[in-house]
Amino acid sequence: MMTHAAYDCDVLVIGGGIVGLSTAYALTRTAPGTRVTVLEKEWGPARHQTGRNSGVIHSGIYYAPGSLKARYAVRGAAELVDFCVEHGIDHAVTGKLIVATGRAELPGCTRWCSAAGRTACRSGSSDPPRSRSTSRTCAAWRRSGWAPRGCATSPRWPSGSRPR
């Protein structure tokens, strides 16, 4: 038996994960007065994939420098950090250490460090002694890079601390 429901809104967004909530938020910002309803089957937002991710805010270092993906990642990360600050959402700008632990990983590490340096990440290589003092879990490596704007937020923030 199929049931039908009526929603008194201009836009109905299906899903209360980060994509659905971001879409609803953007609609209310770009079209003030638009009546947006978010429909979620669970008891609260971020109960599926959004709530299970690592919370890493990607900095674009794994994308080709200057590519659309890299530009969107850099811009999106900056906008998300600004959003977290504006709305009092827990986040941390911790930086990201890129490490090659053996010879086989050197080409990839060199490529990522070089790419990171050509994006807006303001990244570059760092000397192993300085990096070793940053992380005790990486005892021996050949090369490392540092992306100072690497950051993270709680993947569950939509269900915990809500934007004001």
Alpha plus pi helix count: 5
Helix content: 25-40%
Question: What's the story with the biggest beta sheet?
Answer: 3 strands, antiparallel
How much of the sequence lies in strands comes to: 15-25%
- Measured distance between first and last alpha carbons: 40 Å
The Rg value, from CA coordinates, equals: 20 Å
- Order of strands across the main sheet: 3-8-4
Structure described in brief:
By secondary structure, this protein is of the alpha+beta class. It has helices at 18-30, 49-52, 68-87, 106-118, 128-134, and strands spanning 11-14, 36-39, 56-57, 91-93, 96-100, 124-126, 143-147, 151-153. 23% of the residues are buried.
Q: What this model shows, in words?
A:
- It is a single chain.
- By secondary structure, this protein is an alpha+beta fold.
- Helix content is 35%, strand content 18%.
- It has 5 helices and 8 strands.
- The protein has helices at residues 18-30, 49-52, 68-87, 106-118, 128-134, and strands at residues 11-14, 36-39, 56-57, 91-93, 96-100, 124-126, 143-147, 151-153.
- A 3-stranded antiparallel sheet has the order 3-8-4, with helices on one face. A 3-stranded antiparallel sheet has the order 5-7-6.
- Helix 1 (18-30) links the parallel strand 1 and strand 2 (36-39).
- The termini are far apart.
- Residues 120-132 and 136-140 have low confidence and may be disordered.
Write the layout of secondary structure elements.
Elements: E1 11-14, H1 18-30, E2 36-39, H2 49-52, E3 56-57, H3 68-87, E4 91-93, E5 96-100, H4 106-118, E6 124-126, H5 128-134, E7 143-147, E8 151-153
Parallel strand pairs: 1-2
Antiparallel strand pairs: 3-8, 4-8, 5-7, 6-7
